User: What shape does this take?
Amino acid sequence: FLQQAARDLEAAGVARERIALDPGVGFGKTVAQNFALLQRQAELLALGYPLLGAWSRKSSLGAVLGTPGQPVGTEGRLQASVAAALLAVERGARVVRVHDVRATVDALKVWQAASA
Assistant: This one.
């Protein structure tokens, strides 16, 4: 689906370098499906477009932090959101959408320093 959408954009005249893929984490997917997107992110990258990681405060994070039937609310998802953003970047995401910018930037700085 994403590959075809990107091809359609290019056919409509959108320059390839202006296209990024958003797999839609959290939109109409189960917790397992969302985490499968992160686990298999390399397959999406193989399509040849930059990838967006948008895990910030997602309900899937709350589901894995809480107990069955009692997910953690958005206010308790900061650390999990930062961890998911780091994982997405480590696995090749070029863009991340976050709510907690400072915390995510700080974590990315530490990750980058350790990766140098």
